[in-house]
Amino acid sequence: MTHEAVRDLVRAREAAADDLRRKCLVPGERSTGDTVRRSGLTLAGKRRARRALVEAAWTYRYPARVSETLRVRLCARYRRLSTAGKEPR
Known about the structure:
The chain is of the alpha+beta class and 89 residues long. 56% of the residues lie in helices and 15% in strands. The protein has three helices and two strands; from the N terminus they run αββαα. The protein has helices at 2-22, 47-59, 68-83; strands spanning 27-32, 35-41. A hairpin with a 2-residue loop joins strand 1 (27-32) and strand 2 (35-41).
């Protein structure tokens, strides 16, 4: 069972890498012999896709700030759904 989970993770990672390569969102690289030096994203490819990727990365830098009222409302909704037999995905 764990082998299947690991295979799924590897396949998902490869698929994500293929998607990024198709959109030309690849890191720059300067390699000589055994030395591999990677840099940030290259400027090739779609500008909008690159910007969206960078903005998404910035949103994960800090934890979300959620107000007390929103947190209470979401917790109540979760409790209501779990008592109704719904399972989280």
